[in-house]
Predict the 3D structure of the following.
Amino acid sequence: MPLLQLLRADHAPALLAFERENRAYFAAHVPDRGDAYFEDFASRHQALLDEQGTGGILFHLLVGDGGEILGRFNLVDVADGGAELGYRVAEKAAGRGHATRGVREVCRLAAEEYGLRRLSATAALDNVPSRAVLARVGFGAVGGVTLDGGLRGIAYELDLGALVPSPSPSPVLLGGSFGRERSGTSS
């Protein structure tokens, strides 16, 4: 069963593999990270861990049974009771409920563990699967936005106090430890 884990230093090799293997898939919906992201990955990973230590970001990875990364679920700009959610799921894991379960679990953690009251997110207009995940979890569309790379998108918000507990435990569990990037629908 996949586990949701807070970003740790030892996740670096699997996370780099996840990003490399899914680069073209992700670039179909969000601006590409660029070659520098991959060339400077080790120092970037450490910088994210350092920033996570300050509490300004909270990065989570969905880790499969074999240690492979299936997705990432990030909370950035954590301040004043709110944060921005970003996420991405591997192509091989798409369409299997991982994004919805991961977003639900991060929302639960945001409310119960991190003391947040609201989350925001964005999704490109053509990223229908991510928009559907946000809607299923309870995010409401609040307006149009221009995303990185000039893409048109939609901004969403979620009042964490309005979350209704799931009738059964989430199959995504939190374990272990994870660093700033906007994923979202684009990290």
User: Anything to note?
Assistant: Residues 95 and 129 are 9 Å apart (CA to CA). The two ends are 23 Å apart (CA to CA).
